[in-house]
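Researcher: Re-running this chain for the archive, since the previous output was lost when a drive failed. Same request as before.
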Amino acid sequence: METDSYKTLASPSEEVLYKEKNSKFFGYAFPVSTEEDVKAIIDDLKKQHFSARHWCYAYQLGTTKIQYRANDDGEPNNSAGMPIYGQIQSFEVTNVLVVVVRYFGGVKLGVGGLISAYKTAAQMALEISDIVEKTIDIHYLIRFDYKNMNKVMRVIKEKNLDIVSQKMEMSCEIEIATRKKNAEMVFDIFSNLFEVVILEKE
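Model: Regenerated structure tokens:
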């Protein structure tokens, strides 16, 4: 059974702090939808914590096609980014960025200590986050002449479809969104309407 919903964050988390042998690990979780979002947030955190030693992070984007990255930012390989990413997976969230900023406290933690600290800070940030479930939506463009407006609007209303945008002129175009499991049915209804064209939006 293919699911048509996913979990993500409603808003950025509060800052959390985990301390280990004088090192401080500040954890943050953010909802993101693009790599540009990720970059902007990391840049902000680097300004905010300009005297920190490491800004390690992991993110996951996408619902059907998953894209992820884990970055150790100068910590030993796989001691930071992957433990953070592991928490994103264990909370089963996507479109999420988790960043852990480390201030070095003068005592080396060793790889095991680092893994545990980055994992814990990431976990703490996700635990206090507001995790919400959203539907995976398919977007369609519906094209029709103005004279067919009523029949198109009737279906949109009956099927409770979200209108994303609309252009109403002599020839009209409406972008609608429907959750994935209803998409085929919605597509069929519109494609059976006389003089109405429906296309899936890339």
